[in-house]
């Protein structure tokens, strides 16, 4: 487990920033500054530390830079240091919500962002993302089937042959980017909702050789609240499972 995460969490101001993003994701620097009794430069320094430890992510929207809570490292802290010491029902106590709407003059941004660092090449990650025998080991036992062409449909089947999810390949740029529409079919409350969108961004880490950053953005779900709620928790599990599989050869248990 990266010690930077624990160092980041040790500071009360940084914990407050995480709480603020938990309460309302996609905040601007100016918004966050109004809640802390410190200079704008001080808040920026704390945000930089949180971003370097991968606890938050940022996205440029128009002229603003928005800050988002990244639940994946927190989920890993939970699995490593909490879950094995507590009863399974406590899993609900540490789920961090990030399905919020932000109305701005320049643009409306509704998205959930998850990011994880994996000790593997972008090509390895792309293979794990597009090969049915690999996805079945970390994507809730779902095998993905597609022709892997832009505009082509894809389907994810469970072990019983039932459709778990389906959609369309919107952008295909191996091994760095995959954009797909997403319709969750495995739950009655989601299969009637319109499709949302998943964007996978796969890029080599700039500073650590052999490590790749995988970012998954879920958006266009303003008319699909149940899907958004399900993926808020589910995507962090999928990413953690992919990391475990690629780094150890074993599925996440």
Would you write up a description of this structure?
- The protein is of the alpha+beta class.
- It has 2 domains: 3-98, Winged helix-like DNA-binding domain superfamily/Winged helix DNA-binding domain (Arc Repressor Mutant, subunit A); 115-248, Alpha-D-Glucose-1,6-Bisphosphate, Chain A, domain 4 (2-Layer Sandwich).
- It contains 8 helices and 9 strands.
- The chain has helices spanning 3-9, 12-23, 29-33, 40-52, 71-81, 122-130, 132-135, 225-248, and strands spanning 56-61, 64-69, 111-118, 143-146, 153-157, 163-173, 177-184, 196-204, 212-219.
- Strands 3-9-8-7-6-5-4 form a 7-stranded antiparallel sheet.
- A hairpin with a 7-residue loop joins strand 8 (196-204) and strand 9.
- The longest helix is centred in the last third of the chain and has 24 residues, at 225-248.
- The model is unreliable at 87-108 (pLDDT under 50).
Provide keyphrases for this structure.
single chain, 253 residues, alpha+beta, Arc Repressor Mutant, subunit A, Alpha-D-Glucose-1,6-Bisphosphate, Chain A, domain 4, 2 domains, seven-stranded antiparallel beta sheet, 34% helix, globular
